Known about the structure:
By secondary structure, the protein is of the alpha/beta class.
Amino acid sequence: MSAPTIKDAVRERYAKAATHARTGAASCCGTDRSASACRGPITSNLYGETEAGEVPELALRASLGCGNPTALAQLGPGEIVLDLGSGGGIDVLLSARRVGPAGKAYGVDMTDEMLAVARDNQARAGVDNAEFLRGEIEHLPLPDASVDVVISNCVINLSADKDQVLREAFRVLKPGGRFAVSDVVVRGEVPAQVRKSIELWIGCIAGALREDEYAAKLARAGFEQVGIEPTRVYEIEDARKFLSAKGVDVDAIAPQVAGKFMSAFVRAVKPQAQRCCAPQCCE
């Protein structure tokens, strides 16, 4: 029997989270499963009262994001939006309301349990201009140049092939389309063992990129106007209880961690015209 992959582990984690959301139980990966521990400095207080009132309570319980991309993406009426790793559907439903009846919001997720929760939330919210598709963010089930905006909420860091994810995002965007995601990023170098401990706390199966790595990968995928804006910096004190339970000397690693792990809003734009590399382009 082959060893489980990162993708298998992510799928299992989100399947359990969907089940916990339905039962009203806390859904997290640490040993402390209380709601306050699970929805601490990472997943708490991401949505305002107005936004929370626009979606069912189940959508909020199923949210495992680290930001609020719909608030930062500046969505306009009539736009077509795609959410990578849409989970329980909160960002898809909020996006659908932002773009209005003339627009549409798609969500792509590989976990059947989360798709069921998302479709349940859609029915409860009475949102008609949304659609949830089963698929992997490395292989999006949408045609080329079909969406105006790609959003995501703390999911790309979980992929084992982030270059492929970014290539796919670039492919499905229309020329001039926007990449506007919330994700976990790292500022500067962090020793491997320390990084592993912090990532366990942040997302259980995280693989966060450094800021410069993220920008370079976006550029290689073809994007321009890349920007990375920190939205929430994770302090070592926030993780003290979790890390101490794992046998980590928090005081010893604090100087190597301070200010380095954060949620960030990552922006980029697909160029209006594709560069031509064929001989006739220079004629």
